[in-house]
Amino acid sequence: EPPPAEPPSAEPPPAAPPFSMRAALIPIPLAFAPRDTLPAWSSQLAGALEAALACSTLSRVYLYFCGGWAAAPLTKESIRALSIAYDCLPPAGAQLDVVPLLPSAGWSPSCLGSLADLSTLLLTEAPEACPETERAVSELAEVRRVANLPPLQTVVTPGGVPPPVMARPDAGNPDGYLEYARLAVGGTFDRLHAGHRLLLAVSALASAHTVYLGVTGDELLAKKANAQLLWPFEKRAAVAADFIRLVKPALNVEVSALLDPQAPPKAATMAEISALVISRETTAGGAKVVEMRKARGIDAPLTLVLVDLVGAASQSSDAMKLSSSLLREVEAVALASNVSSEDTKRSASEREDTQMPRETKIRRQDG
């Protein structure tokens, strides 16, 4: 007789989190003002991001900037520090979902406990080496204990090599706090990469109420290289808007499609929009929007908030840079290589089959 079945357990075992729901948190303790040419934390962060990339189960990394300037509203110095943070990503990590979390955007150690996908702590130094880190880690652990969540896996990572390309000086952005009730930002946002994330993070942190997010419509992208690989508008818009809300959950995000290259953007027609966030290479386009507002009789000023290119040798429009076009090209080459490899295997198999003696074919088919 078969053995009696075991009685079912009172509770089923918890399901393992899916790949897309695994995330790590890197606490970054800060000095009060980010004035150093190369912050001390850049080499530590580079090492931690290398460790994150080496772990195949991690698909998102939260950077928790704690203490110092991260508790104050955005400034041109803190924009530069965020640029350096994204430059710490190695080239292979261009599309890693790196999300900066700042106390000024409402993130405290207790709020970090609400991150359902968090599974790992990547520490750049032992917690006791820095009071700010030790306090944040201790409070996060207590929040998870009270919420009956499993403890986080903790890994202390070695330092790495700081990026060879650093963010340029702060020329162009105004002094003081960069905080605007309503601002605008636009782009294609295909295959969201580090450059997109920096642009969107600065937009979120500079806004106090609403971000108007303009996303290029599919029709305007039909002539792009490898256009067949472009994400559809709905996906590009959703991914960009979700990222803004993750950086600063209290914000309103209004998405619109950019369908006519001749039509003025909202920043040129809405007086209540007081800032436009742009990459430094598109300063000329931003200046044109300012002139369009004036031509329409809008006297309210429009501040241009400039964001550095990530991983670029310079900030000029013709500089080699990380781009969606490049990522699509890499994917197209990989797809073509896979197809070519499959075709080669199929042709070899067919040649082998035609050259094989009849009795051998029969034996092979019979197993």
UniProtKB/TrEMBL annotation:
InterPro entries: Cyt_trans-like (IPR004821), Rossmann-like_a/b/a_fold (IPR014729). SUPFAM superfamilies: Nucleotidylyl transferase (SSF52374). Residues 342-367 have a biased composition (Basic and acidic residues). Coiled coil: none annotated. Residues 337-367 are annotated as: Disordered. One of its GO terms (molecular function) is dephospho-CoA kinase activity. GO terms for biological process: coenzyme A biosynthetic process. Residues 185-329 form the Cytidyltransferase-like domain. It holds the Pfam family CTP_transf_like. This is Cytidyltransferase-like domain-containing protein. It comes from Calcidiscus leptoporus. The lineage of its organism: Eukaryota, Haptista, Haptophyta, Prymnesiophyceae, Coccolithales.
